[in-house]
Amino acid sequence: MNEAVAAPFACRAKDYKSDLKPVWCPGCGDFGVLNAITKALSGLKLPPEQVALISGIGCSSRIPAYTRVYGFHGVHGRALPVATGLAVARPDLTVLAAGGDGDGLSIGGNHFLHACRRNTDLTYLFMDNAVYGMTKGQPSPTTELGWEGSRLAPEGQLQEPLRPLDLALAAGASFIARCFSGDPNGLAEMIAKGIEHPGFAFIQILSPCPTYRPEQMQYKRQVHTGFETTDKPREAGLQLLDDDGFTTGLLLRRPVPLLAEAPGESVDLDSIQQKFRVTP
């Protein structure tokens, strides 16, 4: 009896999407990010079973459910430690982490800094709309000073915003970029570059929130190219001094040893378990 042979995966962008319909608001920038992810995976011809997408909590963190790759929807702010552990334990996988500005720079801020300096081989898609969209519109760590668009902050945003690219640079990231969700083709190209980069690739994605930040729908008139890619942190820092927050492109790409390549004794699971066995 002849056994049925499964057809090879076609590696078309639409084939990386699941059958679940996204529940994002109409006009949300995260639709463009989802499209860009599937375009990037298609362009690299990566089989779904060789890709893992890890997320935390928030509107953007729903994204693993809308793909056909392995997914892990974790707890608030913890996408990066899970992704880091997976990338170290399974270097054969392509590991992506996804989250928003609240998930990544509020409760997850400490994890972000250490992910940059550890330089594990993974790509972090940081979807930034400068608002807590899933919890009714509070200011987030990247909300600009003086914003008064939230009833939950009646006195307005009274704190200076964090600057994600500056933080990534200061923490030692080896790949730093900014893109716009309204340019899914350009974003797909950048995601592919991030995946191919041997190390921690940080991509800030300006992803408008039409519900709580309707003014962000003007991003398409504000974003502009301008970063000149460098491998020197000092030159990258000088560019950021003049950055208006809407400059897009690859800012920094430099060779840094991977965490998995750090000097040390190689161990396996059996040897670790042996150390904890108690001899009667």
Notable traits:
29% helix; single chain; alpha/beta; 9 helices; globular; 8-stranded mixed beta sheet; Rossmann fold; 280 residues
Task: Provide a concise account of the structure shown.
By secondary structure, this protein is an alpha/beta fold. The chain has helices spanning 30-44, 79-89, 101-105, 109-118, 164-170, 184-196, 219-222, 233-241, 269-276, and strands at residues 51-55, 70-73, 94-100, 122-128, 175-180, 200-206, 224-225, 247-253.
Measured as a percent range, the helix fraction is 25-40%
Strand order of the largest sheet: 2-1-3-4-6-5-8-7
CATH class: Alpha Beta
- The structure class reads alpha/beta
CATH architectural name: 3-Layer(aba) Sandwich
Q: Could you give the distance between the termini?
A: 55 Å
CATH superfamily: Thiamin diphosphate (ThDP)-binding fold, Pyr/PP domains
Number of strands: 8
Q: What is the typical, i.e. mean, pLDDT?
A: 90
Cα-based radius of gyration, to the nearest Å: 20 Å
Query: What low-confidence regions span 5 or more consecutive residues with pLDDT below 50?
Result: 1-5
Question: What is the number of domains?
Answer: 1
Q: Output the CATH topology.
A: Rossmann fold
Order of helices and strands: HEEHEHHEHEHEHEHEH
